[in-house]
Each structure stands twice: as C-alpha cells, then as structure tokens.
Write a structure and sequence with these properties.
Elements lengths: L1 H5 L1 H7 L7 H4 L11 H28 L3 H14 L3 E2 L7 H4 L3 E7 L3 E7 L10 E6 L4 E9 L6 E9 L12 E10 L5 E7 L32 E4 L23 H11 L6 E10 L4 E3 L5 E5 L1 H19 L9 E7 L16 H14 L6 H6 L2 E5 L2 E2 L22 E3 L10 H14 L4 E3 L12 H8 L2 E6 L1 E2 L6 E5 L2 H20 L6
Parallel strand pairs: 1-2, 4-13, 4-14, 14-18, 15-19, 16-17
Antiparallel strand pairs: 2-3, 3-13, 5-6, 5-10, 6-9, 7-8, 7-10, 11-12, 12-20, 16-18
Helix pairs in contact: 4-13, 8-13, 11-13
GO molecular function, one term: zinc ion binding
Family: Belongs to the peptidase M18 family.
Pfam family, one: Peptidase_M18
C-alpha cells in the first residue's frame, strides 16, 4: 500500500500528458505535416511509460487486494492519506460536513462511497457520480466446510459465488483470504483481514484425459469441483486442544485450516467467532504480448473499472478547494453485483441515495431537500467491464460494435434496457469525450445473443438520474484469469478524471433535451 501511494504524485503529474489534444495522438509521424517529429516521439515515449506505470500499479493492486474487503480497505486508506475524513454511517453527519469537504464511508466492509462537496453547493447543481462494483467471481467457504477425508485427502467444502467452480478453476493455485471476526481477551468483538498471498492452500485437480468420458465433463460442482487442502501425513495433530475447543467453529472447519487462519490473523483459534473467506488465484498478473500490449490478470471484473474510477476521483479531489467549490462529486463502489445487487451492500441497498441525502441535508442546513431535484440535475456513470473482441470467435460479435484494446472506454448499449444508456445519455457521453479528447467504442450484442447486466439500470430506476453504462473492455470475462489492454487502465483513469472535471459543463448544454 505504501509503495503504491508513494507514486501517486508522480502519476498525477505525468497524467497531465494524457490531456493533450487527441489530434496530436493521431498524427502520422511519417507524413509531411509541419510538426516537430522529435518532440512528438518524445511525447509518445513519455506517454507509453505512463500507461505502463498505470498498468503495473493495477497489477500490484489486484495481487495485494484479493477480496472485496481488501479493496474497500485499499480505497479507504488511499483517500484518508489524501485528506478525506471517515464518516461512520450510523452517526449524524450534519456537524461534520456543514461547510463541505472530502469524506468517505463504508458499509459491511464491502461497499464504499466517497464524496467531495463544496460549501456553496445547492440541490439544483446536482451531483456527478461514478458507480462501479468491486466484487468478483470467487469461491467461498461454506458455513461448515469440513468434509470427510477421501483416501487420506483432506477436502474443503466451498460454494460458488456467481458462475464459478467450472473447469476454468481446475488446476489453479488457490490462496485463501477474507475477514475474521474474533473475540479479544476483554470480551470485545473485533475483525481483521487475512491473505495467504503468495502461498496457495488449495487446488481443484482435473481428471487426466486418459480416463476418457469422465474427464470431459460436465462436472458436478458439489462432488467433482472440490478443493484438496492436505493429506493425512500433514504434520500437526488433527485433534483440537482444550483451548481450541472453545472456538465455536471447531467441528465445522478443519482444525488445520483454523490454525492456519489464526496464525495469519495473529490470534488464537479459540478467539475466532466467524469467518467470511474466499479462495482465489494467487498468481500475479503480468504485462503480456510481444510488445506488452496486454494485461493478463485475475479479477478484472470488476477491479478494473473500480480501480480506474478511484484513481480518477482521487486525482480530481486533490485539486478541489471546497471553500469555493459549488459542486458535488461522488464515487460509489458496490458489492454483490455478480449475484444481483439485492443486499444492503449492493447497488440496490440504497448507499448512494443515503450518502447524497445526508450530504445534501448537512450542506443546505435543512431537513428538507428534494432528492429528486438533486438527481434530476445529476449524471451517473455505471462503470463496468464489457466484452472485448475475441478474434477466435469473430462471428459472435456485431460489426462496428466490437471493442478493441488500447483505444478507449466502451459504451454499453441494449434496446431492452439491460443497460441504462439511452439516447440522451449516449449524446452526453459522446460530447464529454469530444471535450476531453477521448476516443470511445461501442458494444451491442447480436440479436441471437443474450445480454448481461450491470448496476446501471438499478441505480437509474432508484434515482431517476441520467445514467450511462460504459467501461473498459476485457477478454475472457468470468474466467479465473482474463485480459485487457495495457493502456486501458491509463485511458480509463483519464476518462473518469475528465468526467468529474467537465460533467456539469457538458450537462448544461443539453437544457432538458
């Protein structure tokens, strides 16, 4: 975390290069146009280094923050270090933010909202919001994960979160991470996060093709996609000690596993009360391709857009003096998108509306603020990854709607309202991109394909705000490892920063179109 924060200032300065006019980026250096070619080449080299910095920072982020809990901790620490103040959701905010400022809150440790609000803000000014999800497809330990040994193999009972436990999860090195709730010696209840990175503790072994049909699948997720975590020759007693028997989870989870996570948490087994633990791919992401055109990494959906949005928001916030600012900018990161968002920490849980309401009341010094007026003057970006063109399956993509790597963010479109982008939202984001010198791409499914979903329609229906679904394109969505362009993280940061800077200016041009 500290290493990442140390280069924030460097990236803030160098990201200014990304605001060069887009026309400069499109110049053919072999043409006869009157431009200093040496200067142009120097700019491109510098920009390439910047994109690589952003890519490598993202790779480190995905490696060091494997669960949703870890992502919320990362965002909290990053913004706190840069001048944001924490607001517990269960306390009155009025006195804390009556004069505006920079703040953040969390819910359940797995959803996060931060905002910058000026002292001179009023409801008619609306708010500019970027909302993304930070949960990723994973495998979770069951409430009772203990299973009978099979021929000496110790197995782990797990459940799929989203569409996991398929063959993509076979033969991967799986670590364990998540949240531990424990009781201190004085009786108080605390929690801590654990992460076994870089060490794997489990593997789901595939069956060799020599065995014929049973190796080909389909596979039973309950009985044939079971992680192995040990063998009977493993050192250490299989019987809990008298002290360990005080733990309510003894008998529900392997004593070897409880000892392992207790050691990581620096507590005794007897102190553990409850856990929320994931298995995840411990292999670190990397730059790939002959010219390092790609990022190959786990958990792109959706640590990718959420990471870029967090950086764009933070860079915007650092330049704002709330004493003479009349705006209101929000970053919202939600859990549970992959399973429908219908939870208190999901996009349907009301965290965004709660934050906007509390902040509005406090700054306006009143208990009566019409939230519909606020949202009617607002724009929300629903930032979620979308499908990059896969050259091995070109027939499934719609012509002129097939995003490529290293070009720019992609607008998601769907006439059946699986995406929130309508004609006004589309025109808005295109005008915003023109103002900021950003290239846009478009994704639309073919008529014979089914569409996925995002948090966009849910947020749009709850707030009534103009909402755009867009994001960074990726290959291999919902696989345990995926790919995106190596320049796409930097392009995403630039786009999201530009949104916070100019959304209101562009929005006012539309005048209730």
């Amino acid at each position: 975390m500290e290493e990442q924060l140390q280069i924030i200032e460097q990236l803030k300065k160098t990201l200014q290069l990304l605001t060069l006019e887009q026309s400069k980026l499109k110049v053919d250096t072999n043409s006869s146009q009157s431009i200093n070619s040496n200067m142009y080449e120097e700019e491109i080299v510098t920009k390439d280094f910047l994109y690589q910095d952003c890519a490598e920072l993202f790779i480190d982020f995905t490696y060091k923050h494997p669960t949703t809990y870890h992502v919320v901790k990362f965002a909290s620490e990053m913004l706190k270090k840069n001048g944001f103040h924490y607001l517990p959701e269960n306390e009155n905010w009025n006195d804390r933010i009556s004069k505006g400022g920079k703040f953040y809150t969390t819910r359940n440790g797995t959803s996060f909202a931060a905002f910058v609000i000026g002292k001179n803000w009023k409801p008619e000014n609306g708010t500019g919001v970027i909302a993304s999800h930070i949960d990723s497809l994973t495998v979770k330990l069951k409430p009772s994960s203990i299973k009978d040994h099979v021929e000496g193999f110790e197995l782990l009972g797990v459940a799929p979160y989203g569409g996991t436990l398929n063959s993509a999860w076979f033969d991967r090195d799986l670590g364990i991470a998540g949240k531990i709730i424990y009781k201190k010696d004085d009786g108080k209840i605390e929690s801590t996060l654990i992460d076994s990175t870089p060490y794997p503790i489990a593997k789901i072994p595939s069956l060799a093709p020599h065995f014929g049909a049973p190796a080909e699948g389909p596979f039973d997720k309950e009985d044939q996609a079971v992680p192995i975590i040990g063998y009977v020759t493993t050192e250490g007693s299989s019987e809990p000690t008298e002290d360990e028997k005080k733990c309510p989870l003894v008998g529900k989870h392997s004593i070897h596993l409880l000892r392992y996570i207790a050691k990581m948490a620096n507590i005794k087994v007897s102190q553990i009360i409850q856990t929320d633990l994931d298995l995840f791919d411990v292999q670190k992401g990397t730059l790939g391709g002959l010219n390092q055109d790609f990022i190959f990494a786990p958990r792109l959906d959706d640590r990718l857009c959420s990471f870029a949005a967090t950086w764009g928001f933070d860079m915007f916030a650092q330049k704002i003096n709330t004493d003479n600012f009349d705006g209101f900018s929000v970053l919202a990161l939600f859990d549970n998108e992959e399973v429908g968002s219908l939870s208190r920490q999901g996009a349907k849980g009301g965290l965004l509306e709660s934050v906007v309401q509390h902040a509005s009341y406090a700054v306006c010094n009143t208990e009566i603020v019409d939230l519909y007026t606020v949202f009617a003057n607002s724009v929300i970006l629903s930032a979620d990854v979308n499908h990059m063109f896969n050259p091995n399956f070109s027939n499934v993509y719609l012509k002129n709607h097939s995003p490529k790597p290293n070009v720019g963010v992609t607008i998601s479109l769907d006439p059946n309202a699986h995406m929130s982008t309508d004609v006004v939202a589309l025109a808005f984001v295109e005008e915003l991109a023109r103002n900021n010198g950003d290239d846009l791409q478009y994704f639309h499914i073919k008529n014979n394909s089914r569409s996925g979903g995002t948090i966009g329609p849910s947020i749009q229906s709850q707030t009534g705000a103009l909402t755009v679904d867009l994001g960074i394109a990726q290959l291999s969505m919902h696989s345990i490892r995926a790919a995106t362009g190596s320049r796409d993280v930097g392009l995403g940061i630039k786009f999201f920063l530009g949104f916070y800077q100019k959304w209101k200016e562009v929005f006012e041009k539309f005048n209730n179109v």
